[in-house]
Amino acid sequence: MITIDDEVLWDNSAKDLYFGNPNSNNPSIWGPLLEKAWSKIQFNYLNSNGGFQFVTLKALLGCPTSYYRIRSLANNTPKQIWNVINI
Asked: ∠ at Cα 37 (22, 52), nearest 5°?
């Protein structure tokens, strides 16, 4: 179990969060809190910088994840794309 508080890194000059950024279209705070939990596992934010989101989701949530290169699917029809991602 990972315990975190409700404080996240704030950028005063940008008036926004440093990392996961909720906005008017997506006001949820779970993204920055998951980032904070992952950074705690990695010992700090610097160690968790970069990488792929699916690695974090798999580690924190225990759910299966997959990674797809969008460019490789660009010329496919929606049905073909669905067939690729529908595991």
From this structure: 75
